[in-house]
Amino acid sequence: MTIDHCTAWDHPKAGFDFSRSSSTLTKNLAVANGTNASLGPASTGSGNSWNLGGSWSFTSTNPSTITGSRTATGAIPSSTFLRPSNGADVGARF
Prior knowledge:
The protein is mainly beta.
C-alpha cells in the first residue's frame, strides 16, 4: 500500500498505524496524535513530518472551511485547513 500526502491530526492512538502491513509512506503529516507513526518492519517512510523532525503546527484547524458547500464539480473548496504553517509540502491539500 502506498500512502502519500495524507494528514493525521489529534488521534488518541497512532496517527499512521502500518505496523502489520507492507506499506510505503511519503510526505505525510502527523500532528498531536498519541504516536505520530507506528511502522512495522515491512513498512518504510520518507519525507514525512516525523522523518523531517521539528515542531509542526497548522494554518487552520477550523473544519467549517471544508464542511460547507462544494464547488460546481462536487469538490471541497480550496482552503488552508490542516496545512502546515511553515508551507512544507507534506500532508493533504483541501
